[in-house]
């Protein structure tokens, strides 16, 4: 199976990417993770994106905070799908990264998930892989069913909790 390639702008983004890798692991999907910055190591970020397809990667995930140009810089150097995760910073609570990630010029798309949305980035990557993988699509549906059952279980108990 082809891999999901994840890259973060700094190891301070690790807690966000950990949510991504935990989700990928739970689906037994192979992945690799790197630290490359659009600003601090632009050459390495570009080389990683340019060689991703031939290195067996099918989908890329890029997590960055502040002036979060990483996902866009990766997308500029590959035609693989790129998912951007804007990471929260102290100054603007992630709004800075959200806008930097989502406001891509026409021609170079980045699919942005929520601020710090590491788990959803993984799920979106899995959904892309599942377009041509029926077994993975089935596993994704099973997760949806489990998640729905958990909500309905809470619904059944909610009145009792209010009476405690
Ligand atoms: C971005 O700047 C990184 O993605 C990180 O979210 C933010 C801060 O980086 P550090 O100063 O913690 O290395 O490039």
Verbal overview:
The chain starts with a strand and ends with a helix. The protein is globular, with a radius of gyration of 17 Å. It is built from six helices and five strands, in the order βαβαβαβαβαα. α1 (14-26) runs parallel beside α5 and α5 (118-130) packs antiparallel against α6. A five-stranded parallel beta sheet has the order 2-1-3-4-5. The model has no long low-confidence stretch (mean pLDDT 97). With 164 residues, it is an alpha/beta fold. The longest helix is centred in the C-terminal third of the chain and has 30 residues, at 134-163. α3 links the parallel β3 and β4. Residues 9-10, 12-13, 37, 64-66, 87 line the site of 5-O-phosphono-beta-D-ribofuranose.
- Mean of residue pLDDT values: 97
The percentage of residues in β strands lies in: 15-25%
List the ions, cofactors and other small molecules found in this model.
Answer: 5-O-phosphono-beta-D-ribofuranose
Helix content: 40-55%
Largest sheet: 5 strands, parallel
Counted by DSSP, the helix tally is: 6
Q: Within the largest sheet, what's the order of strands?
A: 2-1-3-4-5
Count of extended strands: 5
* Gyration radius from CA atoms, angstroms: 17 Å
Q: Give the structural class.
A: alpha/beta
**First-residue to last-residue Cα separation:** 50 Å
Can you tell me the residue ranges where pLDDT is under 50 for at least 5 consecutive residues?
none
Which word captures the global form? globular
**SSE arrangement, N to C:** EHEHEHEHEHH
């Amino acid at each position: 199976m082809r891999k999901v390639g994840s890259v973060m702008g700094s190891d301070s983004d690790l807690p966000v990417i950990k949510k991504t890798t935990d989700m990928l692991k739970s689906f037994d999907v192979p992945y690799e993770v790197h630290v490359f910055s659009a600003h601090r190591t632009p050459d390495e970020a570009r080389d990683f994106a340019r060689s991703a397809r031939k290195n067996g990667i099918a989908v890329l995930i890029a997590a960055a905070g502040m002036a979060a140009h990483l996902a866009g810089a990766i997308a500029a150097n590959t035609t693989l799908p790129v998912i951007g995760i804007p990471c929260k910073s102290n100054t603007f609570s992630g709004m800075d990264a959200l806008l930097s990630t989502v406001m891509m010029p026409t021609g170079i798309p980045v699919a942005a998930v929520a601020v710090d949305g590491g788990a959803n980035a993984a799920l979106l990557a899995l959904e892309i892989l599942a377009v041509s993988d029926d077994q993975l699509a089935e596993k994704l549906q099973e997760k949806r069913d489990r998640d729905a059952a958990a909500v309905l279980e809470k619904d059944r108990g909610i009145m009792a909790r209010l009476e405690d």
